[in-house]
Amino acid sequence: MTEAASHDFRRLPPMVAALVRVFARPKGVARLCVIVLAGLGWSCLGLLVGDADRLLQTLCTPSQVALWNVPGFAVIASMWCAMTLAMMLPSAAPMILTYAEIVDTAARKAEDIVSPFILTAGYATVWIGFSIVVALTQVTFMQTALSDVATQSASSLFAGVIFIGAGAYQFSTLKHACLTQCQRPFPFFFTNWATTRAGVFRLGLRQGSYCLGCCWAMMLVIFSVGSMNIIWMAALGIIMTIEKMLTGRRFTYAVGAVLIALGVGAVLAGFAANWPRR
């Protein structure tokens, strides 16, 4: 920051000057993107959970065909968008802050920079698209009675299959290829650097795609535990964030083993519940 700019800040009211300093620095913008958007997601989820009774009454219609109308689908889609913002943006913080570090260095050299907000917007676009697709899937599950109105699996066997599938994916090559890109954002930015808004937005799309490839299976566990289960959402969000902050595969394999064990337990419980009694 130049001496002239600092002098201009002193002419502003203290609160305004503080905000200007934050927005003038890429790191500040990056932190605000993560905190504000993730906070918005958790706030929306809190409102949905707090008003769960009325929400369930709205969705509990005599005919589940009502879910295919615009208001019914909007509720489900909004719920998934809030979940993805709340759960995935914190896990993207290392990537966004890495970009901000690079941009901050460029800003000190008086080079042209693009705000981290553009990168975050590209990243969020991928997960919003995922949310819409999953919302359509959720409505279909409700229609076929595989899921109840609380978006929780109505079948232990179906829930077990989801857990086992998510656990098995933790051991897959695709999972680890995408996870490596998420764990090491600096080489990605170094190789694919862009200096235009469209280019940085595409970087966000690519990083969002890697994150989706890494985490989509674990996000589908929500179908088993219920999208209004704040404890499970927080736990899964923490697990996905830790995965991206660590290197190596031990933690990922351990999570996969636990998910498979939970899935097997759910399947066995389902068989036991439906086993013919003499």
| Net shape | globular
Number of domains: 1
Major beta sheet summary: none
Question: What amount of the residues lies in strands?
Answer: under 5%
Number of strands: 0
Give the N-terminus to C-terminus distance in angstroms. Answer: 81 Å
Oligomer: single chain
- Give average pLDDT, whole number: 78
User: How many helix segments?
Assistant: 13
Helix-residue proportion: over 70%
Spans where pLDDT lies below 50 across 5 or more residues: 1-7, 60-66, 148-153
Structural class: mainly alpha
Give the topology string: H per helix, E per strand. HHHHHHHHHHHHH
From the alpha-carbon coordinates, what is the Rg to the nearest angstrom?
Answer: 22 Å
Write the layout of secondary structure elements.
Elements: H1 3-10, H2 14-24, H3 26-50, H4 52-59, H5 70-108, H6 116-143, H7 156-169, H8 173-183, H9 185-192, H10 197-219, H11 222-225, H12 230-245, H13 250-274
Helix pairs in contact: 2-3, 3-5, 5-6, 5-12, 6-10, 7-13, 8-10
Please, could you describe this protein's structure?
It is a single chain. With 278 residues, this protein is mostly helical. It has one domain. The protein is built from 13 helices and no strands. The protein has helices at 3-10, 14-24, 26-50, 52-59, 70-108, 116-143, 156-169, 173-183, 185-192, 197-219, 222-225, 230-245, 250-274. α2 packs across α3 (26-50) and α6 (116-143) runs parallel beside α10 (197-219). The termini are far apart. Residues 1-7, 60-66 and 148-153 have low confidence and may be disordered.
